[in-house]
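Regression test case RT-17, inverse folding.

Input:
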């Protein structure tokens, strides 16, 4: 079964600069829609599907033919269980594109997620006599005139963003179809010799002709394979570049959040980049931000955790304090963090975990003032009634 979360994460960002370098004539509305689409993908990676929906709705409003954005918007709606809106988005793609396999697949997915209720109108009614099934009617629908590529007033080309995303894949499809056709012709030539005066040509002539044609087909195959390999390499490089650029954007967004003193959010963003590889210029910036922001985030979380413990909100306190443990990389506040974790567990009547946290303070930070407090807590929790 398809995972909605994995499908959401599978959408790659679009390298706008690369598209412009290739000479594509993109209008301002298309450029802005791509920027919003890329921001939506970053929001999804951060778990902010609601923000992603806002950006995607803006992107589609600017460029209604941006069907990859419409598909992603539909998935976001499905993820937050707004199946009617999800179905509406997917049907828009199906009605506009001849190649609507992805949208049809998503429709089936939300039907499963919604207990078979998402496609009620398409499948629950009785089919009229002679009417095509709902999916076939959707696939046969023509693309609206205002969403197709054509000449604009400036003499340039309007570009259908639904097609830009699959530019390389179409070349791959051409290669696969050509190779299959070549192979079929080769089989036909090998089995059926050409007819001559008596129904067959001379055997030697037929063999020579078959050999020459086989050689021609093999040469064409090798040519197509070489083209495919080049396109495949280019496609992989584009994906790698897009992923790298997305990670660089996260670095600068984390820096902006830190500037606004949103240290926890900035640290959360930097933690997503823990396994990423950067070029020297970006690596230095990333490492500097980590060494500066994570301790600030740890301190902010410790203070918030203290307040939550005093307020009796022990579960919320544990969430903040456990995150503080990860971000206290120096470490500077670990004795205080562990002590408050122990108090939070004690507040939840979880003596076992409380004693374990207090014991860590005593063992690892014996000279800390919190070590003395921890001993008192252990004595209280382990005292016999």
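Golden output:
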């Amino acid at each position: 079964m398809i995972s909605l979360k994995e499908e959401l994460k599978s959408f790659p960002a679009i390298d706008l600069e690369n598209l412009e370098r290739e000479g594509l004539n993109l209008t301002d509305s298309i450029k802005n829609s791509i920027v919003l689409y890329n921001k939506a993908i970053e929001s999804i990676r951060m778990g902010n599907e609601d923000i992603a929906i806002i950006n995607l709705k803006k992107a589609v409003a600017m460029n209604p033919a941006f069907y990859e954005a419409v598909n992603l918007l539909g998935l976001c709606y499905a993820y937050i269980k707004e199946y009617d809106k999800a179905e509406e988005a997917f049907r828009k793609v199906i009605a506009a594109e001849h190649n609507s396999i992805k949208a049809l697949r998503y429709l089936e997915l939300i039907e499963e997620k919604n207990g078979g209720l998402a496609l009620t109108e398409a499948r629950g009614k009785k089919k009229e006599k002679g009417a095509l099934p709902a999916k076939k009617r959707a696939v046969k629908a023509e693309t609206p005139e205002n969403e197709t590529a054509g000449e604009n007033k400036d003499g340039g080309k309007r570009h259908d963003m639904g097609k830009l995303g699959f530019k390389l894949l179409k070349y791959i499809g051409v290669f696969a179809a050509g190779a299959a056709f070549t192979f079929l012709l080769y089989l036909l030539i090998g089995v059926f010799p050409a007819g001559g005066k008596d129904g067959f040509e001379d055997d030697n002539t037929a063999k020579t002709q078959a050999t020459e044609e086989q050689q021609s087909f093999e040469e064409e195959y090798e040519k197509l394979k070489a083209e495919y390999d080049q396109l495949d390499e280019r496609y992989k490089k584009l994906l790698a570049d897009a992923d790298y650029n997305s990670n660089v954007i996260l670095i600068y967004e984390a820096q902006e959040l830190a500037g606004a003193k949103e240290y926890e959010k900035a640290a959360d963003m930097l933690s997503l980049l823990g396994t990423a590889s950067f070029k020297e210029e970006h690596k230095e910036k990333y490492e500097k931000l980590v060494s500066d922001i994570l301790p600030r985030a740890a301190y902010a979380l410790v203070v918030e955790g203290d307040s939550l413990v005093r307020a009796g909100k022990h579960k919320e306190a544990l969430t903040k304090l456990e995150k503080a443990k990860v971000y206290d990389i120096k470490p500077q506040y670990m004795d205080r963090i562990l002590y408050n974790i122990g108090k939070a567990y004690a507040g939840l009547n979880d003596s076992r975990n409380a004693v374990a946290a207090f014991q860590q303070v005593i063992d690892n930070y014996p000279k800390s003032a919190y070590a003395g407090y921890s001993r008192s807590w252990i004595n209280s929790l382990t005292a016999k009634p």
